[in-house]
Amino acid sequence: MHIRKSNKLSNICYEIRGPVLKEAMRMEEEGQRILKLNIGNPAPFGFEAPDEILVDVIRNLPTAQGYCESKGLYPARKAVMQKYQALGVKSSDVNYIWMGNGVSELIVMAMQALLNDGDEILIPAPDYPLWTAAATLSGGYVRHYHCDEGAGWQPDLQDIRAKISNKTKAIVIINPNNPTGAVYEKAILEGIIDIASEHNLLIFSDEIYDKILYDGATHIPTSTLTEGRAPCITFGGLSKVYRTAGFRSGWMIVTGDRSGIKDYIEGLDILSSMRLCANVPAQHAVQTALGGYQSINELIEPGGRLYEQRQVAWEALDAIPGVHCHKPQGALYLFPRLDSKMYQIKDDMDFILRFLQEEKVLIVQGTGFNWPTPDHVRFVFLPHVEQLVPAMERFTAFLDRLRK
Ligand code: PLP
Known about the structure:
Elements: H1 19-29, E1 35-36, H2 51-60, H3 74-86, E2 97-100, H4 102-114, E3 120-125, H5 130-137, E4 141-148, E5 154-155, H6 157-162, E6 168-174, H7 186-198, E7 202-206, E8 232-237, E9 250-255, H8 262-274, H9 280-290, H10 296-300, H11 305-318, E10 323-324, E11 333-334, E12 337-338, H12 340-343, H13 348-359, E13 361-362, E14 364-365, E15 377-380, H14 385-403
Parallel strand pairs: 1-13, 3-4, 3-6, 6-7, 7-8
Antiparallel strand pairs: 2-9, 4-5, 8-9, 10-12, 11-15, 14-15
Helix pairs in contact: 1-13, 2-9, 3-9, 4-5, 4-8, 11-14
Pyridoxal-5'-phosphate is lined by residues 40, 102-104, 128, 174, 178, 206, 208, 237, 239, 245, 250.
């Protein structure tokens, strides 16, 4: 028997967990120790969830055995509603909130509900690649808009305009951004919203890193700027800010002018009821997580673990000849550029594979984030400084050898 995967999957890739990870796992099976800087998963690096979240889940386990309503537990959705109301988003309404098994599930649902074959969607380059994969799987045609490294990786509004056609249905914003760490300026967000309003585009705003900010950067939720204007669908969750990626808990909220998207919202309801509901025990964490004291703040201020790790990793990278790294203002990643004349990388997957095999550190190639040229890589700065420093020394040594 020879069963092939469906044609739908022929253009789908998710390189963060791609072939190079398989090689890392093979090496581990041989007994080699690999430092994995490829996935933004805080818990394995010793970032623990706030205690009160764990207590909530444990206390509620006995009553969390059944399915819940497809949209999610009412107290969890109400907490999400209040989070956005507190930000000034008056259209935040509990009836337009869906809880999901992580933002990942909701991204796939949002794309499946929207796209017909050949419909176009604007997604940033570089991107968090699930967006491109989910849109493509849903039959959409992704037009990647350019984010400008020279301008701190802010989206290029001119490029967005140039890539709109009469088939474009939506635009995706990832802010704070994975992989670049950019936090978008108000004028840029306003510019995107103006374009979206002009062309009747739905706005998807992935804000899963909304509270992971450095050096006084301010995150402006897109939904605060779209009130009374374009409909905006915001994604958030517990994985990063509350360090519980394994709980698989996230939300999606539709705000702004919903009058023109009733049918689409019905589509979201159909898909959310088809998967019955999201993980119920984890939804009990949401109300406690979103209300009150935000323990993430201790990690991102000077002296905090994330702040210090970002600093150490960024300084080390930026000191390597021919490596330039925009200092991330948010999220958990560094996305350095390797000078193409100095390093002449033809295939960046091959490049990170060699780095893995020679130095036993796993990172992800820039093209895995739909960046068009093989001249960037992504590092996760979650490990302790004691692990990050040797990892950066190994990268430095690897590049030293390449330059010779
Ligand atoms: N969106 C972005 C920008 C991410 O970086 C990630 C995970 O890395 C996700 C969504 C998925 O998050 P979740 O764990 O909620 O599925």
